[in-house]
Write a structure and sequence with these properties.
disordered C terminus, five-stranded antiparallel sheet, seven-stranded mixed sheet, 18 strands, disordered N terminus, 389 residues
Length: 389
C-alpha cells in the first residue's frame, strides 16, 4: 500500500504571482533553493554576446584555483588579439597595445569590468594556443558543469551563427562562479577599472542601484539586443537574474531593477526542516522496531510567496510497511509539497536509523497474526519468504 502522512497540514501558501517582462529571454532564480520565480524562453538558444565572457573567466579561475597560473603571470598581446579586439576593432576593448606584456589580474579586470574583447583573446591564446582551440575547451567543459545547451565559437561572445547559450545555462554558470570562486567573484562588483591611462566604468546597471547587486556581466550586439546576467543579495538571500533581447540600455536598467526588486519583495525562503530532523515515521514489516524515522539529512528550505494564503499540503509518501532490514541513509520515502496551480515538489527521505530483521520465530508469529486478521502480507521484490533465514 502507499502510506500518506500529513506532516504539516496547512501552511497557507498560494501560487506564485505572475509577472510579465519585456525581455525576449528571462530567468529569475533563488540562489540557495534553485527555485525559479520567473522564466521566459529560458531554454531557447540565444546569442549571449558578452555574457558568454563568464565562461572565459570561469576557465581562467579554474586554472588559478588549481595553481597552474598566478594573477601575477604576464601575457603578451598578439597582433591577432589587437586587430580583433583592440581599439581599432570598434568593439568593447581594454585598449591593449600590441606586443605589450599584461598581468593576468589586469586582463581579468579588463574582461569583467571593461568587457575587453582584446583581453579575452589574449587569455584564450595563452591557455590554448588559439582562440578556436580555447572555444573547443570551453565546449568540452560546459556540459561537465551543467551547461546543457551552450555552444562556444570564440572567447568574446562576438556574433557567430553557432555561438549560443540559454538563459538557464547563464544562471547555472553564474551560480558556479559565485560558489566555486568566492576569492575571485569580487572582481564582478568593481565599478571601474583604469588601464593604459583610460578609465572605463562597469556597464552593469544594478551595481548603481540599491538592490544589493554585486555582479556579474552585461552583453549587447545588434542581433542579441541588450542583456544582463546579474546577482544580488538582500537580507541574507541571493537571487540570480538573466535577461536578454531588450531594446536599450535604459530598458535593461529599468527591467533588471524591477524584476530583482520583485523577487526579493514577493518571495521569501522558509526553513521547513533543519538538517537531520525527523520528518515523520514509517511503518516497518518484520523489523526489530515497528517504525523507522524518516529524515532529511541536509534539511529543507523552500522559496515561497510572502503573501500566500491558500492551502498547501506537505505529505510523506512510501510503499509500506517497509520490509526490514533497512539501512540508515537508505531512501525509502518521498516528501511531497502540493498546492493549487503549483507543480508538486518532491524530496527524497532517508531512513534515520538501521532496522534489523526479527528473528525467525518472531517473523513466523507476525506472519500468522496477519493471516488470522486477514491482512495482506507484504511481499516486495527481493524479499525472502517467511520462515527463511
Amino acid at each position: 500500500m502507499v502510506a500518506l502522512v500529513a506532516v504539516l497540514g496547512v501552511l497557507g501558501v498560494s501560487p506564485a504571482q505572475a509577472i510579465e517582462t519585456t525581455a525576449r529571454e528571462a530567468l529569475l532564480m533563488d540562489f540557495d533553493t534553485g527555485t525559479v520565480m520567473l522564466e521566459k524562453n529560458a531554454d531557447d538558444p540565444m546569442p549571449p554576446s558578452s555574457m558568454s565572457k563568464l565562461m572565459t573567466t570561469f576557465m581562467v579561475f579554474e586554472q588559478l584555483k588549481a595553481g597552474r597560473m598566478s594573477l601575477d603571470d604576464t601575457f603578451t598581446v598578439s597582433e591577432n588579439a589587437w586587430q580583433k579586439g583592440g581599439a581599432a576593432s570598434g568593439g568593447s576593448t581594454m585598449f591593449l597595445d600590441p606586443n605589450s606584456s599584461v598581468r593576468l589580474e589586469d586582463l581579468l579586470r579588463g574582461i569583467i569590468v571593461q568587457s575587453g574583447n582584446d583581453a579575452c583573446i589574449v587569455v584564450a591564446e595563452h591557455l590554448a594556443g588559439t582562440e578556436e582551440a580555447f572555444a573547443d575547451s570551453m565546449n568540452r567543459r560546459a556540459p561537465e558543469i551543467g551547461l546543457a545547451h551552450s555552444v562556444f565559437q570564440n572567447s568574446t561572445g562576438l556574433p557567430h551563427p553557432e555561438h549560443s547559450m540559454t538563459a538557464r545555462d547563464l544562471a547555472t554558470l553564474a551560480k558556479r562562479i559565485i560558489t566555486d570562486f568566492p576569492e575571485y567573484y569580487p572582481y564582478y562588483s568593481e565599478k571601474e577599472f583604469s588601464y593604459n591611462g583610460i578609465t572605463q566604468h562597469n556597464r552593469n546597471p544594478l551595481l548603481y542601484k540599491n538592490v544589493g547587486a554585486d555582479g556579474l556581466k552585461t552583453g549587447h550586439t545588434s542581433v542579441a539586443g541588450y542583456g544582463l546576467t546579474a546577482s544580488a543579495q538582500n537580507n541574507g538571500r541571493r537571487l540570480i537574474l538573466v535577461l536578454n533581447g531588450l531594446e536599450s540600455t535604459r530598458a535593461r536598467a529599468e527591467e533588471s531593477e524591477r524584476l530583482m526588486s520583485w523577487g526579493f519583495r514577493t518571495f521569501e525562503n522558509v526553513e521547513m526542516f533543519k538538517p537531520g530532523a525527523t520528518v515523520s515515521d514509517a511503518e516497518v514489516w518484520l523489523g526489530q522496531t515497528e517504525t523507522v524515522p524518516l529524515v532529511l539529512p541536509d534539511g529543507l528550505t523552500v522559496t515561497l510567496p510572502r503573501n500566500a494564503r491558500r492551502t498547501m499540503k506537505v505529505l510523506v509518501r512510501y510503499d509500506g510497511p517497509i520490509p526490514a532490514p533497512i539501512a540508515r541513509g537508505q531512501e525509502i520515502a518521498t516528501l511531497v509539497i502540493e498546492a493549487p496551480d503549483i507543480q508538486p515538489i518532491s524530496f527524497p527521505l532517508q531512513a534515520g536509523t538501521n532496522v534489523e530483521r526479527m528473528g525467525i520465530v518472531n517473523r513466523m508469529f507476525a506472519a500468522l497474526r496477519h493471516i488470522v486478521l486477514g491482512l495482506v502480507i507484504p511481499e516486495p521484490e527481493g524479499s525472502t519468504a517467511i520462515g527463511g533465514t
